[in-house]
Write a structure and sequence with these properties.
By secondary structure, the chain is of the alpha+beta class. The chain has three helices and seven strands, in the order H-E-E-H-H-E-E-E-E-E. The strands form three sheets. A three-stranded antiparallel sheet has the order 4-5-6, with helices on one face. It has a two-stranded antiparallel ribbon with strand order 1-2. Helix 1 runs antiparallel to helix 2.
């Protein structure tokens, strides 16, 4: 007799987010409005791979809490169904131009840090036109 592990709803949602982010390509941005490279001291360095990595780190550290607090998939990983990340009113909190690390989370805000600067992300103002970044087709 096998024993099946029963996952909570929050664990199931966080697992679905991980599957979605892992389905995103590492070698190219998945939608318009995001940048691939940024200038640095040693030339240009990849930004998108670091954003993708930051999304996975968020899921690992905060995913279940975010699910329990009611954050939707689109509120975290959404982009505009036609314009991608260009339409910031439809972009989720973790779809950023540069990678950011979550330092605090509550029902209505995510506090994201990058190089000592804190950004507070809230819910989208236009969630009806949002799709998750891994479902973006730009049609």
């Amino acid at each position: 007799m096998s024993v099946a592990l029963a996952l909570t709803d929050a664990q199931q949602l966080a697992a679905s987010w991980r599957i979605g982010v892992c389905s995103l390509p590492e070698d190219r941005v998945p939608c318009p409005g995001m940048i691939w490279t940024a200038p640095g001291a040693r030339g240009r360095s990849g930004v998108w791979p670091a954003v993708r990595k930051a999304m996975l780190a968020f899921i690992d550290e905060w995913g279940e809490d975010a699910a329990r607090l009611g954050w939707s998939t689109e509120a975290l990983f959404g982009v505009h169904r036609l314009a991608g990340a260009y339409r910031v009113d439809s972009v989720g909190a973790l779809v950023t131009i540069y990678p950011r690390r979550c330092v605090a989370l509550c029902e209505r805000e995510i506090h994201l840090e990058r190089r000592g600067s804190i950004t507070v992300a809230t819910a989208q103002t236009n969630p009806a036109d949002s799709v998750t970044i891994w479902l973006f087709r730009g049609e």
